[in-house]
């Protein structure tokens, strides 16, 4: 079990479906601040918002949340948090958790449990949960993950994995009992030195095909530990309807 970890929250102002999403008001505070408050409940040693816009920095500072202005041209949130971690005086062995800026209902225990899986030999960790509805396995928007016996990722895919040969091919489709396919949760923890290495890794063919950033890590031969939670996580905020749902929750 690790003693401490840092949380960096990437928050990009541009959003096609929900303009100015990180600044959306939830119970009197910007959404990104609500995410930071959840990270604080997880026991993070420090929390920093990594953003591409000064308005987000200003909004965070008004709520006593640390924020760092980053370059605007980052391809992914992971690249954005890597820039921040490089600026901090954190050690190579410190753990840095990437908590998405649109997850104001994230479970703090999920953050700490995922961070705890990072070690000298396993430089990256993420999370997953068991899918409740069998038909979800065929939804390409639900990313699936298959694990080995040590709960390390073998592969992530938008396809139905593992493929139930004797059931999925049937016209009426039958499902294994128990049905235990895993859906990936977009939460990532890194050893700080590996976070810097990750940003320098070349883009992999399978990553481009699946459009899944984490496949770059597996393709280059690094292990990813996976925390399997029994709790179905609350959905993040992508649309105005999602925002209203979260506001009701608060």
Automatic annotation (TrEMBL):
<dbReference type="GO" id="GO:0008690">
    <property type="term" value="F:3-deoxy-manno-octulosonate cytidylyltransferase activity"/>
</dbReference>
<dbReference type="GO" id="GO:0016020">
    <property type="term" value="C:membrane"/>
</dbReference>
<comment type="similarity">
    <text>Belongs to the KdsB family.</text>
</comment>
<dbReference type="InterPro" id="IPR004528">
    <property type="entry name" value="KdsB"/>
</dbReference>
<keyword id="KW-0808">Transferase</keyword>
<keyword id="KW-0963">Cytoplasm</keyword>
<comment type="function">
    <text>Activates KDO (a required 8-carbon sugar) for incorporation into bacterial lipopolysaccharide in Gram-negative bacteria.</text>
</comment>
<keyword id="KW-0448">Lipopolysaccharide biosynthesis</keyword>
<dbReference type="GO" id="GO:0005829">
    <property type="term" value="C:cytosol"/>
</dbReference>
<dbReference type="GO" id="GO:0033468">
    <property type="term" value="P:CMP-keto-3-deoxy-D-manno-octulosonic acid biosynthetic process"/>
</dbReference>
<dbReference type="GO" id="GO:0009103">
    <property type="term" value="P:lipopolysaccharide biosynthetic process"/>
</dbReference>
<protein>
    <recommendedName>
        <fullName>3-deoxy-manno-octulosonate cytidylyltransferase</fullName>
        <ecNumber>2.7.7.38</ecNumber>
    </recommendedName>
</protein>
<dbReference type="InterPro" id="IPR029044">
    <property type="entry name" value="Nucleotide-diphossugar_trans"/>
</dbReference>
<dbReference type="InterPro" id="IPR003329">
    <property type="entry name" value="Cytidylyl_trans"/>
</dbReference>
<comment type="pathway">
    <text>Nucleotide-sugar biosynthesis; CMP-3-deoxy-D-manno-octulosonate biosynthesis; CMP-3-deoxy-D-manno-octulosonate from 3-deoxy-D-manno-octulosonate and CTP: step 1/1.</text>
</comment>
<keyword id="KW-0548">Nucleotidyltransferase</keyword>
<dbReference type="Pfam" id="PF02348">
    <property type="entry name" value="CTP_transf_3"/>
</dbReference>
